[in-house]
Amino acid sequence: MKAFQIISPLHTALKEIDAPACRAGEVLLRIRYVGFCGSDLNTYLGRNPMVRMPVIPGHEVGATIEAVGTDVPDFLRPEQHVTVNPYTNCGKCAACRNGRVNACEHNETFGVQRDGTMTEFVAVPWQKVVTADGLSVRDCALVEPMSVGFHAVSRAQVTDIDTVMVIGCGMIGLGAIVRAALRGAKVIAVDLDDEKLEVARSLGATCLLNSKTEDVHARLMEYTGGLGPDVVIEAVGSAPTYVMAVQEVAFTGRVVYIGYAKSDVSFQTKLFVQKELDIRGSRNALPEDFRAVVRYLQQGHCPTDKLVTYEASLEQAGEMLQRWADDPAKVFRILVKF
Predict the structure, then answer these.
(1) Which end of the chain is more exposed for a tag (fewer CB within 10 A), N or C?
(2) What is the number of other CB atoms lying within 10 angstroms of the CB of residue 220?
(3) Can you give the CATH number for the domain in which 208 is found?
(4) 281, 296, 325: which is the final residue of a domain?
(5) Is 291 part of a structural domain of the chain?
(6) Within its chain, how far is the Cα of 92 from the centroid?
(7) Alpha-carbon distance 112 to 51, whole Å?
(8) Cα–Cα distance for residue pair 144/169, rounded to 1 Å
């Protein structure tokens, strides 16, 4: 069967690999759509420190069940539309023992530390299959990135009395915007691109800030009555936005970082103490975050067509990565269709 592989920075190829067997406790999936993630783009550009190359990318999955092995519960049936929880957990590290399996010390994510799903079939343990009845198989590929944003909102403990600023309106940031709005918070969206900000508005943001053309601090003070946002969720992963989060959050606020900066970041650490901040990381997502996204999408209110910038064939996958690298600000998601 065909698979797409990133061999080395800026070097990709199609290859033939053996089709997987469906063993006991496993489900064989026919891959229909795979989304390119920011981590895939960083792998392609040689900027992903966690990847093991060469690698088959892909962990944002829209699939149908092809077959089920023995010892698989009967709620999983052939032809169902599903997505995949693409993370592993060891069950032994501190994170796993604390029930936070999403942050497993020894996690291996599809397409990063192990080969991913940009191929025709994959076999996965049944526990990693997320059913998505009522969703199109294409929309199933949007569940994982949105779930990462949902998880960040849970980490921030957002409630209906909070004002939440989300920095970065890519797919993960949009997931955070949706979840914060669903919890009744006032949501401020910050990005460099007005088109992305308008999508953020359609998903629940009530204040839009273009950090390239506007004075973010002045606008925040105006919108929050001089207090600053109660919560800042950073979904970019750059040094300036890391610093912005700490500078702009309200006294006694919460800062949650999803993205990780690729260079060292210098902070005025007095703000940590002076504001008595809660500063938290947010990694991957938990099973309940996946279920929450599926339930949200099942309601049919999400303008999913606006979230998909390009659809491409497997043969065009390398070209699509280069197109994204050439103009990253204009891409929400690229889906590779099988």
Answers:
(1) N
(2) 24
(3) 3.40.50.720
(4) 281
(5) no
(6) 25
(7) 5
(8) 16
Range of the domain at 135: 2-142+308-337
Amino acid at 63: A
Q: How far apart are CA 163 and CA 69, in angstroms?
A: 47
Q: Round to whole Å and give the CA distance between 26 and 21.
A: 9
In b/e form, how buried is each residue of 267-285, taking b as 16+ CB within 10 angstroms? eeeebeeebebbbeebbbb
The single-letter code of the amino acid at 168 is: G
| Both tokens assigned to 12 | 């990709």
Distance of CA 186 to the CA centre of its chain: 22
Same domain, yes or no: 185 and 93: no
Domains in the chain, number: 2
* Residues 137 and 6 reside in one and the same domain: yes
Rounded Cα gap, residues 177 and 175, in angstroms: 5
Question: What is the C-alpha separation between 63 and 79, in angstroms, rounded?
Answer: 9
Token output for 278? 């809660």
Instruction: Please indicate, yes or no, if residue 179 is contained in any of the structural domains.
Output: yes
Helix H or strand E segment including 242 = helix 239-248
Tens digits of pLDDT across the chain (338 residues): 999 999 999 999 999 999 999 999 999 999 999 999 989 999 999 988 889 899 999 999 999 999 999 999 999 999 999 999 999 999 999 999 999 999 999 999 999 999 999 999 999 999 999 999 999 999 999 999 999 999 999 999 999 999 999 999 999 999 999 999 999 999 999 999 999 999 999 999 999 999 999 999 999 999 999 999 999 999 999 999 999 999 999 999 999 999 888 789 999 899 999 999 999 999 999 999 999 999 999 999 999 999 999 999 999 999 999 999 998 888 889 999 99
pTM of the model: 0.96
Residue given tokens 């693409």 in the structure block: 86
Q: Which of 83, 233, 89, 220 is nearest to 150 (CA)?
A: 233
Mark whether 153 and 68 lie in a shared domain.
Answer: no
Specify if 277 maps to a domain. yes
Find all residues with CB under 8 Å of 330, minimum gap 6, and list them.
Answer: 193, 195, 309
